[in-house]
Design goal:
Elements: E1 5-8, E2 27-31, H1 40-48, E3 56-61, E4 68-71, E5 75-80, E6 85-90, E7 95-104, E8 107-111, E9 126-127, E10 132-133, E11 145-152, H2 243-267
Antiparallel strand pairs: 1-2, 2-8, 3-11, 4-5, 5-6, 7-8, 7-11, 9-10
C-alpha cells in the first residue's frame, strides 16, 4: 500500500499576521517519522514523487527546540517564528541539495526545490486519507526535527587558510641623548730646546818649554857708594833714592839669582 501523500501548491493565506506566506510548489506531505536520508521509509516515499536517489544526509537535527541556528561546513539552518519555520543555506558550492525534510506533529513535509526559506511541517488539519486539509485555517505545528539530503557535484579544492606571520611590533630603541664628551684642551708637548753640545775648543798642546840657556849673569859693577858726608849740622846727606826703590832693586837681584841657580841645577 502506498503511503498517503498530498501534493500541495501555494498555501492558503495565513490566518495570523505573523505567519509568513509559503509559495513552494510543489511540496509533499507524508505521515510518519522520517529521521534521515538513508531511512528506508523515507526513500520509498521519495521515489514515489520522482526522487529515486536522494543522496546522503548532509545535515540533520534530531530534536529541534525552538528558534535558533545550527549547522556544519555544508549546511546552515535557522528556525524562527515560534519554532514553526525553517531557512536552509547551502554553504559549500561543491554540493547540491536534493531534498529538505521538515517534521512537526505526526507528519513531515518534503521540499524538492528552492528557495529553501520559510519551510514548515504539514499543518495540523491535513488528513492523509482525504489528501487535503479539513479547514480553511492553517495551523503549523512547531518543528521537531529536520534534515537535508544532497549529493556532491564537484571535488572542492582544499584551501588552507593562509598562516599569517605574526607581525611583531617593533620595539623602538629609545634614543639616548648623546652625552657630549668634554673637549679636552690639548696639552702641548713642550718643545725641548735642544741642548747644544758645546764644541770643545781643541786643547793646544803646549809647546815644549825650551830651557833657556843660562846667560851669564853679569855681576853688576858696584858703584862706589859715596860715603855720606856729614852736613854742617851733623845729618846724613840726601842721595835722592827712596827706600822703596832700593827694596825693589834688592828683590829683583834675588829673583835673578834664584833663576840662575835653578838653571844650573837643571843642566846638571
Amino acid at each position: 500500500m502506498l503511503p498517503a501523500v498530498a501534493v500541495l501548491g501555494a498555501a492558503l493565506p495565513a490566518a495570523a499576521t505573523d505567519e509568513p506566506e509559503h509559495d513552494h510548489e510543489p511540496h509533499y506531505y507524508f505521515e510518519g517519522n522520517a529521521q534521515d536520508c538513508e531511512n528506508p521509509e523515507f526513500r520509498d516515499n521519495a521515489a514515489s514523487i520522482g526522487l529515486d536517489e536522494p543522496g546522503e544526509t548532509l545535515f540533520d537535527v534530531d530534536s529541534a527546540d525552538g528558534n535558533g541556528t545550527t549547522g556544519n561546513e555544508i549546511i546552515s539552518g535557522t528556525i524562527h517564528t515560534d519554532g514553526k519555520y525553517l531557512d536552509v543555506v547551502l554553504q559549500d558550492d561543491s554540493y547540491e541539495i536534493t531534498a529538505v525534510v521538515v517534521k512537526g506533529g505526526p507528519n513531515y513535509a518534503v521540499y524538492l526545490e528552492d528557495p529553501w526559506t520559510d519551510l514548515h511541517s504539514p499543518d495540523l488539519d491535513w488528513v492523509p486519507e482525504a489528501a487535503a486539509r479539513t479547514s480553511e485555517s492553517v495551523r503549523y505545528p512547531a518543528i521537531s526535527n529536520w534534515f537535508v539530503c544532497g549529493v556532491q557535484t564537484s571535488t572542492p579544492t582544499p584551501t588552507e587558510p593562509p598562516t599569517e606571520t605574526p607581525t611583531e611590533t617593533p620595539t623602538e630603541t629609545p634614543t639616548e641623548t648623546p652625552t657630549e664628551s668634554p673637549t679636552e684642551t690639548p696639552t702641548e708637548t713642550p718643545t725641548e730646546t735642544p741642548t747644544e753640545t758645546p764644541t770643545e775648543s781643541p786643547t793646544e798642546t803646549p809647546a815644549p818649554t825650551e830651557t833657556p840657556d843660562e846667560s851669564p849673569t853679569e855681576t853688576p859693577d858696584e858703584s862706589p857708594t859715596p860715603s855720606p858726608s856729614e852736613t854742617d849740622e851733623g845729618e846724613l846727606p840726601d842721595t835722592g833714592t827712596s827706600p822703596s826703590a832700593m827694596l825693589l832693586l834688592g828683590l829683583t837681584l834675588l829673583a835673578g839669582a834664584a833663576l840662575a841657580l835653578r838653571a844650573r841645577f837643571v843642566r846638571s
